[in-house]
Amino acid sequence: MPIIRPKALTPGDRIGIVSPSSPVSLEDLEKGVKCFQDRGYHVEIAPHAMNQAGVAGQTYLAGDDAGRAEDINRFFARDDIDAIICARGGYGAIRLVDRLNWEVMRSHPKIFVGYSDITTIHLGIARHSGFVSFHGPMTAAHPNLSDPTKAQFWQMLESIEPVGELPTDTSAITTVVGGAAVGDLSGGCLCLLACSCGSKHAPNFDGKIVLIEDVGDAVYRADRNLWQLRNAGLFENAAGFVVGSLTNWRKFEADPPLNTPEMLFEEFFGSLGKPTVTGFPFGHEPNPLTLPLGVTAHLDADAKTLTLLDPAVHP
Fold this sequence. Notes:
With 315 residues, the protein is an alpha/beta fold. It is built from eight helices and 14 strands.
């Protein structure tokens, strides 16, 4: 289906805050909301966003599944909500995908922002609703972002012009396989991409520039997730790869002293032979880039640059 661009944000618009995954603290939420208000936006917190629920006495979900899904569906259906930004990630979005109204979302496309566990919803949007969504920092993170990171976030959501080359420190990026590729951006958090295999929400990476990152995992588990995606055939026709990092990766007995994420990425993506860079600043980083999923980009792996060729939003 042809990609749909949501309407650009303008100060004075209304941003809705939802919690599709884990609970968020009131203090963190209020600080994040203030950042949006200081930019000139009205903010509405979804009715169930501050709830807590779980199983076996654990409160790892932001309320029950029906309420979390209802918040998303209602905010997409409402014409007075101009954008939806997730409060935080964690776990729980996978429990919602069959409760979300993808047809309503397609007929009411609007800016939707999140990453980490929210990858699951991004995959559903790409597969069933067909509009640009944003892999970017969530509400609770905004008070701690640097000014350049905040500026790039708002530029992505407010500018109707192609953003062009993304601002990065190329000295921190590694070329694994040289060359260039053009394709729409797709992907997200590695473990969620692997979990989607075999489901009706699994991604189609044919001709895409695939984004991959993760947090707090062992190298051997990242290795397993990458091979799950490869064995499922999802990487076979990809155009190229932009890899972030395995932030705060954990050492396990299965990780020899010299087994690092960098070594894994070099071996795995090197064997695929497609243009690939690693160490790109997005995802579970203190100051991550906001990346528009579905927008066409040019990857120059030799120059270590990623350039957006089209705008992410429309007037």
